[in-house]
Design a protein that fits this description.
The complex is a heterodimer of chains A (510) and B (445). Chain A is an alpha/beta fold and 510 residues long. Chain A has helices at residues 32-38, 62-74, 96-102, 105-108, 120-137, 149-166, 185-192, 210-216, 239-248, 281-284, 341-380, 402-408, 412-421, 449-468, 470-475, 487-491, 500-509, and strands spanning 141-143, 175-179, 196-200, 221-226, 252-255, 276-278, 299-301, 313-317, 320-324, 397-400, 428-429, 438-441. With 445 residues, chain B is an alpha/beta fold. In chain B, a hairpin with a 6-residue loop joins strand 9 and strand 10. Bound molecules: pyridoxal-5'-phosphate. Residues 88-89, 148-150, 183, 185, 227, 231, 256, 258, 280, 295, 297 of chain A line the site of pyridoxal-5'-phosphate.
C-alpha cells in the first residue's frame, strides 16, 4: 500500500515574514498632469478622517508572497489529490475546462450594472442554465441568486412566508417541520425566516416516521423540509403519502438538494410533490468548493410560487434578455446583484458536457459505488450499517464505528484521523445525529473500483490496528502537516486566538 | 454490479415509487465534447462587452479594480480550489492558516479585534449584523442612512422582517450629503438596536462626524455598525478608531474580479469581548497548538455558535461561505502591504477628483452634487435632459456612464453615480469629458 506523507513546512504566519518597507506590487501611478492639476492630496481628505497609523499589514516582496501561499497550499488536501468521501458534500472531480471558462476575461470583467445590450451573452447562458435546472428538478422556474445551499433554504423559507402571508394565514403558520436526520442548516434557516422548527423523528427504517409526522402536522404547519434520498442515503419511499399529508393542510414541501447527485435523470423532486427545491451547484454540478466556498444555491419553485422569487428575474422578450424588476409579489432581495456567476458558468459547462445521458450515468455510478462500498465494508464485519441493511443506499451510506468504541474505547474521530494517515480524507463524522459514532461515506461517481478497494483495505487495517495497537489510532494522525490539534484549547475563552493581534496581545500578557 | 449481485443498475432504484420514476430522457443537450463546449461558451461570452471594449464608469457595490496575476495564480492552486471546508484540520492546515491570516488582516485594516472568515456579501452581512445587534441588545429597530444602496436596503429588509425588526432612515444634510447627526438624535431611542452608517457612503462621500455618531449610538446603548469599502482603508481612518462595534463591507475590491456581480466577499469584524464573539455569525478560524503542545496549528473554532451544532438556535444558517474570495483578499493585501494600499488609495482619490474637476467644468451638469470629500465615486446631475439619453449617446463613444440613480433619489433630479478606480486612465477621463461636452452642446442646440 503506497505511503502518504503530507508536506510539513512549519510555515510562519505572513505577519512574521518580510521586512519593513518591502512591497510586492507597484501601484499604477498617477499621471503627472493629474498631479499638477490637483496639487496636494491632503486637501481632499480632512485631517480627522485620515488614517493616522498605517495598518499593520505584512510587508513582503512578490516572490515571498508566492512562496508563502504556495507552501500553504502544499499543506492542504484536496479532491484532485485523492479519495474524499466526505458524506453529504459530494466531493467529485470537477472538469478543468469549467475552471478555464470561469476565468475568461469576457466574464471576469463584466460589471453587473452594464447596459443589458452589452451583456446578452452572459444573460443568455444564465437564462438557459435556469431552464436546464428547472428541467432537472421538475420545477417551473429557477432563481440563480442564492450564494449557497443554506442561502437557498433561507430564500425558500421566505417564500413559504410570502405564500402564507398572501393567503392571509401567516399568523397561524408558525411551524416548519424538519426530520431529526436533517442537516443543521435546515432548522437554522427555518428559524432565520421566523419559523419554529418542529423536529419529527425517523422510524426504524431510517425514514421519516409517518405517524409522527401526522401528529406533528396541524393548521400551524407552514411546510416540511426534507432531503430525498435522506442523509442516511435512504430513499424516502413514502414520499407520496408525506407530500399528501403536508399539502392537505395547505403546507409547502421543501427539497434540500444537497443529495441531488443520487437521482439526476432518475426521479425529479418536482414530480415527487416538492414545491420548492434548492440545488447545491458546488456539490452536484461541476463547481469546486474552494476550501469552503464560493458555491451557488439556485432555487426552483412551482408555477404558483414563481411570483415570489427575488428580483431581478432574467426574462427573454423578442429574443432579447432582460433583467425584470417589476415583480410586485417578490420577496425582494437576499443579496446584491444576480448570483455567484462564475460558479454558475461552471454548472452550465458541466451540464452541457455531460448532457442528459451523462447526468443520469452520474447518478447511477455514484449509487453503484455506494452499494459496492457497503458490500465490501460489511464484509469486514467491524463497522455496523444501522437501519435496514438489505435496502440499497443511494449516493451515500452511514456506518457506525460503535463496536470499536465498546471494545477498545476508540471513537469515530480517532478512526477518521487515522484515515488521514493513509492519505484518505475522512468521511463526515457524527452526522446525522441519529446514528451513534456515525461515519457518513459518499464515494461519488469520480473514483474507480481500485480506489474504493483501497479505502476498504485501509478500513480493514485500521480495525486491525484498533485491536493490536489502539494507541496508534488514538495518536493519529502523524503523517499530516500537523499532528492532532487541541481543539478545546482553540475554542476556550482563555486561550482562544482568533487573529494575529490577539496572539500578540496574549503573548504580552504572559 | 456482479459483486453486489445485480444485473441492471435500475435494481438499485427499485425503492423509488414506480409512478415517480422518470421514464423519459431529460430535455437537455446530448453529451458534448470539451472542444465544442469551450468554443460554444467562449463565443457566447465574447458577445459581451467588457471593460476592454468599453470604458465603464460603474461602481455602486461592485468595482473594477486590477487583480494582480499573483492573486489569481494563488487562488487557482488546485489544493485550495478543490478542497472542501476544512473539517479535518490536520490535513487542511493550508486553507486554515490562510483564512486565519485573512481574518487577521481584516482586523488590522478595520482596527477591530475579531473577523470571521467571510459571509456571502456586504448586503447579507448587513442583515446578519442587524440580527446580531438584536440578539445583543434585545431591541428591534435599526437606523440606517437614507443614502444607501437600494439593493442593500432591500436585502436588509428581507433578513430582518422575519425577526420582527424594523428600519428607520436617518436623513442627510442637503448641502454636504453627509449623515444628519441632528436627525439621528431625533430618531434614536431605547428601541434602537444599532445605528448603521457607511463610509464612504453609497454616493462616494466621506463621512466626517463619525465620532459624534458613535457617541450618540452608545449613549442610547445601541451598537454602532459601520459599512466600509476596505480598499479605502489604507488612506481613511479605520472604523475601530471611531468607536465601531461591528464592521461590515464588501471585500470584492481586494483581488476579486467583478464577474457580473458574483461571487462577492462579505467582510465581517467586531470587537473582541466574549459576548460579541459568541453572537457573531459565520465561520471563525483560530490558532491553537497540537495536542502535545509541540507545534502551532489552526482549526475552526467556536462551532457551538453554528448551525450544525446549535441547529435552530444558531447565530446564522451560513455553511458554505466565500473562502476562496477571502483567500484572494489575503493574497492581495499581503502583496500590497500598508504602503501599496495607501498609494493605491491616493491614486484612486486623485483620479476620481481629477474626473470630478474636469467634469465640473462642463456646462449643463453638476459634479458632484454634494459639497463633501469624496472617494472613488461621485454623483452627477443633469440640468436638463435625461440620464438614459446621455447614457445611450455615451455608448456611441464606447463609454459607459455611471449608474442611473434618478429613481433611487428623486430629490436629486436626473442623476447618476460615477466611479473612477486605478483602472481608469487620464485619457479615459478626458474622453468622457470630451464626450459630455459634445453631447450636451448638441442637446442644447
Ligand atoms: C444535507 C445538506 N443540506 C444543506 C447543506 C448546506 O449547503 P451549503 O453548504 O451550500 O450552504 C449541506 C451542506 O453541507 C448539506 O449537506
Amino acid at each position: 500500500m503506497p505511503g502518504f506523507r503530507q508536506t510539513r513546512w512549519s510555515e510562519p504566519t505572513v505577519f512574521e515574514l518580510g521586512c519593513e518597507g518591502r512591497s510586492g506590487y507597484l501601484v499604477p501611478p498617477i499621471e503627472n498632469p493629474i498631479k499638477e492639476e490637483l496639487g496636494d492630496i491632503q486637501i481632499f481628505i480632512p485631517e480627522r478622517m485620515r488614517r493616522q497609523e498605517p495598518p499593520k499589514l505584512p510587508e513582503l516582496s512578490e516572490v515571498e508572497v508566492v512562496r508563502h501561499f504556495t507552501r500553504l497550499s502544499q499543506m492542504n488536501y484536496c479532491v484532485d489529490l485523492g479519495f474524499y468521501p466526505l458524506g453529504s458534500c459530494t466531493m467529485k472531480y470537477n472538469p478543468k475546462i469549467n475552471d478555464y471558462l470561469a476565468s475568461l476575461p469576457s466574464l471576469n470583467l463584466l460589471h453587473p450594472y452594464q447596459d443589458e445590450m452589452t451583456v446578452q451573452g452572459v444573460l443568455e447562458i444564465l437564462h438557459t442554465l435556469s431552464r436546464w435546472l428547472a428541467e432537472i428538478t421538475g420545477t417551473y422556474e429557477v432563481s440563480l441568486q442564492p450564494a449557497a445551499g443554506a442561502h437557498g433554504e433561507f430564500l425558500g423559507a421566505l417564500i413559504m412566508r410570502a405564500y402564507h402571508m398572501l393567503s392571509d394565514d401567516l399568523s397561524e403558520r408558525t411551524e416548519l417541520i424538519i426530520p431529526d436526520s436533517a442537516h443543521g442548516t435546515n432548522p437554522a434557516s427555518a428559524a432565520m425566516a421566523g419559523f419554529k422548527a418542529i423536529i419529527v423523528p425517523s422510524d426504524k427504517t431510517g425514514c421519516i416516521d409517518v405517524d409522527a409526522l401526522k401528529s406533528a402536522v396541524s393548521n400551524q404547519t407552514a411546510g416540511l423540509m426534507l432531503t430525498n434520498p435522506n442523509t442516511l442515503g435512504i430513499f424516502e419511499e413514502n414520499i407520496a403519502e408525506i407530500a399528501g399529508i403536508i399539502h392537505d393542510v395547505n403546507g409547502l414541501l421543501y427539497y434540500d438538494g444537497a443529495n441531488l447527485n443520487a437521482i439526476l435523470g432518475k426521479v425529479r423532486p418536482g414530480d415527487m410533490g416538492f414545491d420548492i427545491v434548492h440545488i447545491n451547484i458546488h456539490k452536484t454540478f461541476g463547481a469546486p468548493h474552494g476550501g469552503g466556498g464560493p458555491g451557488a444555491g439556485p432555487l426552483g419553485v412551482s408555477e404558483e410560487l414563481a411570483k415570489f422569487l427575488p428580483v431581478p428575474r432574467i426574462i427573454v422578450e423578442d429574443g432579447k434578455y432582460r433583467l425584470d424588476y417589476n415583480q410586485p409579489h417578490s420577496i425582494g432581495k437576499i443579496r446584491s446583484f444576480y448570483g455567484n456567476i462564475s460558479v454558475l458558468i461552471r454548472a452550465y459547462a458541466y451540464i452541457l458536457s455531460l448532457g442528459a445521458e451523462g447526468l443520469k450515468e452520474t447518478a447511477e455510478i455514484s449509487v453503484l459505488n455506494t452499494n459496492y462500498l457497503i458490500k465490501k465494508i460489511r464484509e469486514l464485519d467491524v463497522y455496523k450499517l444501522p437501519y435496514d441493511s438489505k435496502r440499497p443506499r443511494k449516493h451515500e451510506c452511514v456506518f457506525s464505528t460503535k463496536p470499536l468504541l465498546e471494545e477498545k474505547g476508540i471513537r469515530t474521530i480517532d478512526i477518521s484521523k487515522r484515515l488521514l494517515d493513509y492519505g484518505i480524507h475522512s468521511p463526515t463524522i457524527y452526522f446525522p445525529m441519529i446514528v451513534e459514532e456515525a461515519m457518513m461515506i459518499e464515494p461519488t461517481e469520480s473514483f474507480e473500483k481500485e480506489e474504493l478497494d483501497r479505502f476498504v483495505e485501509v478500513l480493514r487495517k485500521i480495525a486491525q490496528e484498533v485491536k493490536t495497537n489502539p494507541e496508534l489510532v488514538f495518536q493519529a494522525p502523524k503523517n499530516t502537516a500537523v499532528t492532532r490539534l487541541d481543539e478545546m484549547k482553540a475554542s476556550h475563552p482563555k486561550t482562544m486566538t482568533l487573529s494575529w493581534r490577539m496572539h500578540i496581545k496574549g503573548q504580552s500578557n504572559l | 454490479m456482479k459483486e453486489i449481485g445485480i444485473e441492471n443498475i435500475d435494481e438499485l432504484f427499485l425503492d423509488v415509487p414506480e409512478r415517480f420514476r422518470l421514464k423519459r430522457r431529460l430535455e437537455l443537450p446530448s453529451p458534448t465534447s470539451e472542444y465544442k463546449v469551450k468554443s460554444h461558451i467562449e463565443s457566447q461570452l465574447a458577445r459581451n462587452k467588457t471593460s476592454r471594449d468599453i470604458i465603464a464608469f460603474l461602481g455602486a457595490g461592485c468595482w473594477p479594480h486590477y487583480v494582480p496575476a499573483v492573486v489569481k495564480s494563488i487562488t487557482q492552486r488546485t489544493e485550495f480550489l478543490t478542497s472542501y471546508t476544512p473539517y479535518q484540520p490536520e490535513i487542511s492546515q493550508g486553507m486554515l492558516q490562510l483564512l486565519f491570516e485573512y481574518q487577521s488582516m481584516i482586523c488590522e485594516l478595520t482596527n477591530m479585534d475579531v473577523a470571521n472568515s467571510s459571509l456571502y456579501d456586504w448586503a447579507s452581512g448587513l442583515g446578519e449584523a442587524a440580527r446580531m445587534a438584536m440578539r445583543l441588545t434585545n431591541r428591534r429597530e435599526i437606523l440606517v442612512p437614507r443614502i444607501i444602496d437600494p439593493d442593500r436596503l432591500a436585502t436588509l429588509k428581507t433578513y430582518i422582517a422575519p425577526a420582527g425588526m424594523s428600519i428607520q432612515k436617518i436623513d442627510y444634510e442637503r448641502y454636504t450629503g453627509q449623515l444628519s447627526v441632528d436627525d439621528l438624535e431625533a430618531r434614536i431611542s431605547d428601541k434602537t438596536a444599532a445605528v448603521y452608517i457607511e463610509n464612504p457612503s453609497y454616493l462616494g462621500l466621506i463621512e466626517t462626524r463619525n465620532d459624534e455618531v458613535a457617541k450618540v449610538a452608545h449613549e442610547s446603548a445601541a451598537l454602532f455598525v459601520v459599512g466600509v469599502d476596505p480598499i479605502s482603508l489604507g488612506l481613511l481612518k479605520p472604523p475601530g478608531d471611531y468607536g465601531a462595534d461591528i464592521v461590515i463591507g464588501e471585500g470584492q475590491p481586494l483581488g476579486n474580479y467583478m464577474n457580473f456581480g458574483g461571487p462577492l466577499l462579505g467582510v465581517f469584524a467586531c470587537r473582541g469581548d466574549m459576548s460579541m464573539i459568541r453572537q457573531m455569525p459565520g465561520r471563525i478560524i483560530g490558532m491553537t497548538t497540537t495536542r502535545d503542545g509541540m507545534s502551532r496549528g489552526y482549526s475552526m473554532v467556536l462551532q457551538t455558535r453554528e448551525q450544525h451544532i446549535r441547529r435552530h438556535k444558531a447565530t446564522s444558517n451560513i455553511c458554505t461561505n466565500e473562502s476562496l474570495c477571502a483567500a484572494a483578499a489575503a493574497a492581495y493585501l499581503a502583496l500590497l502591504g500598508p504602503n501599496g494600499l495607501k498609494e493605491l488609495g491616493e491614486t484612486i482619490l486623485l483620479k476620481s477628483h481629477y474626473a470630478m474637476k474636469r467634469l465640473s467644468e462642463v456646462g449643463g451638469i453638476r459634479v458632484p452634487i454634494f459639497h463633501a470629500p469624496h472617494f472613488k465615486e461621485f454623483t452627477m446631475s443633469l440640468s436638463s435632459g435625461r440620464v438614459d439619453n446621455v447614457h445611450e449617446q455615451l455608448l456611441r463613444y464606447n463609454l459607459h456612464g455611471g449608474k442611473n440613480i434618478s429613481k433611487e433619489f428623486p430629490e436629486l433630479g436626473e442623476a447618476a453615480l460615477y466611479c473612477v478606480t486605478e483602472t481608469i486612465s487620464k485619457s479615459d477621463i478626458d474622453a468622457l469629458v470630451n464626450a459630455f461636452t459634445e453631447i450636451l452642446l448638441e442637446g442644447a442646440s
